[in-house]
Design brief:
single chain; alpha/beta; Uracil-DNA Glycosylase, subunit E; four-stranded parallel β-sheet; 11 helices; 7 strands; 15% strand; globular; Uracil-DNA_glycosylase-like; Uracil-DNA_glycosylase-like_sf; SMUG2 DNA glycosylase family protein; Phe_SMUG2-like
Length: 233
């Protein structure tokens, strides 16, 4: 019998966006853009998801350049992949504040093995986007940043939420990272497609680290209360 790890790895391997994007927007697919993300993410899922214990989905926005854009694992930057997950990584060592927050929360929850036995984190849009910024550097771009991009990737988003649910995750509750545009989009999408019975939104880790770092522990407590409410023995 296959496991969550087998199904997640297959999902990652097939991820490809073939539609058109607005001018100036580029797709970011870590599983095809570099030689290490697929390998390290396969090791990660093999380590923490090689079973069929029931789990709930947590959906962020879309991959960022310094986290899952490097490792292929949502909210897990290379630093955390090495130091927390104890998984070898040969690519560039980057730091993502969101990843720092998530792994502090995971430690408070009871550790990596306990958390990942209960939850699977990915994104509303499973591939990321970049644009060239004012200074000529590549910067992250979100699926909701322009109506044109949202419209272009809408069918891709719907298709891949269906595929992620089909991996076998619980659909009574879905957690959403982001209480602004990501929450609004996911709630509207859920009203249309009835993917989940309930969507529970939590402030995005990046927002917390950037604007609310002094009260980070309060947000961690809020996360734990929400997550513990659906823990499956």
């Amino acid at each position: 019998m296959d496991t969550f790890a087998d199904r997640i790895i297959t999902f990652n391997q097939q991820l490809e966006y073939t539609g058109k994007l607005p001018p100036g927007v580029s797709i970011m697919n870590p599983f095809r853009d570099n030689d290490f993300a697929l390998d390290v993410s396969t090791r990660f899922y093999g380590k923490y998801y090689s079973d069929n214990h029931p789990r709930h989905l947590v959906l962020g926005i879309n991959p960022g350049r310094f986290g899952s854009g490097m490792t292929g694992v949502s909210f897990t930057d290379p630093k955390r992949m090495i130091s927390k997950c104890q998984i070898p990584y040969i690519g560039p060592i980057t730091h993502e504040p969101s990843s720092e927050y998530v792994y502090d929360m995971i430690e408070a929850f009871g550790g990596i093995e306990r958390f990942y036995q209960q939850f699977y984190i990915h994104s509303v849009c499973p591939l990321g986007f970049t644009i060239t910024g004012p200074k000529g550097k590549e910067i992250n771009y979100n699926y909701y940043d322009t109506p044109e991009l949202t419209k272009a990737v809408y069918p891709f988003i719907v298709e891949n939420i269906k595929k992620q649910i089909a991996i076998g995750f619980e659909t009574d509750v879905c957690f959403c990272f982001g209480t602004g545009k990501n929450e609004a989009f996911l709630r509207k999408l859920n009203d249309e497609h009835r993917f989940f019975k309930q969507v529970v939104a939590l402030e995005h880790p990046r927002f917390i680290m950037q604007y609310k770092s002094k009260t980070k522990q309060d947000y961690i407590a809020k996360y734990l209360k929400a997550f513990n409410a659906v823990v499956i023995p």
